[in-house]
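<instruction>
Derive C-alpha cells from the sequence
<data>
Labelled lines for chain and fold
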Amino acid sequence: MTSRSRYFLLAVLLVFATSLGTLVRAEIGGLNNDGSAEWQPLGPWKFLIITDGPEPIGIAWQPFTAPSPGHAVLNAQGFANDDGPPSSGYNPVSALPIVTWSRNSPDGYDVVYSYLTATGWSPPAVLADSAQDELDPSIVIDPLDGTVHVFYWVDDSIPRVMHRQAPADLSAWSAPIQVSDSSDRASRPSGLVHGGDLWVVYEMEAFGPGQTPRAIVLARYDSLLAEFVPEVLASTHRIGDVHPEVRSHSGRFWVEWIDADNEIAWIRQDLQGQWEAPRYEPYSSKLELFLARAGLRLRAVTVP
C-alpha cells in the first residue's frame, strides 16, 4: 500500500437488487484502515450509489452499516430525509476530504457541505439557500492550490447555474456568481480543472421547459474578464435530463451526456484544441449505461 493510499482511500460499492441495474443503497463514511476501534482519519472510504438519473433525489444515502467508534458515517439520515446525491473530493493541500449535497428541509433543498477531520465529519454548513431549490452541487478542487469550487443550479422560473469558491482551508466563501446567462434555462452542472483552467458543463433548455433540442454548454472561467465564457458544444433531442459531465485524463479533454434512452454521446478536443464530431455509444440497461460511461475514459484516451 502506498503512503498516499494509507491516508486517503476511495472505494466504490456496487450494490444491486434482484433486478439488474436497480440500485438500492449507498453510504459515505470515514473508516479506519489500521485495525483499531478508535476513530482516526486515516482512511476516508467513499461508498456511492451508481446512477445516471433521471431522478437523482431520494435514491442516495441509504446506509448499509451502523456507525461505530472506528466508523464515521456522514449524513446518516440522508436517505430518510430524501437528500440529493453527494459530490465529493479530496483536497491535496489541506488534506481534507470534502462532500457537498442538496439537503432537504421544510423550506426546500439547500446546498450544504461537510469535511472530515480528526474528530469526524464537520457539522453540515449551508452554502446556498433561498426560497427556491438549490440542486445537484458539483465540487471541484484545484490540485495546485487547493481552491474549492462548488457549482449548483437554482430551480427557479428560469433555472440558473451558480458558482462559489473558497481557499483550501475553507476559511471564507466567495459571493455566489451566476455562470449561465440570465435568459438561459440552465441546470445540472459538472465542473473540472483542466489545463490550469476552471470548466463547467451544463444542459440548457433553449426552447422552454421540457422542450427539445437541449443544448450542451461548456463554459470556461476567464480570469481577465472575471466571468465564465460559454460555448454550445452540441444539442440533443432526448426528452428528459441528459446529465452532462466534463472529463479529462492523460491530457485528453471531453464532454459526455445521455443522448437517448439507449445511447450516450461524447465529444472530445483534438490535440490542437479543436472539438471533434460527437461520437455515440449504445446501452440497453442502467448497468450498461454505467459501464459505458466508465469505459469512455479508455476510449477518449486511445481512440484516434
Notes: The chain has three helices and 20 strands. The longest strand covers residues 96-105. The chain has one domain: 3-302. Residues 286-302 form the longest helix (17 residues).
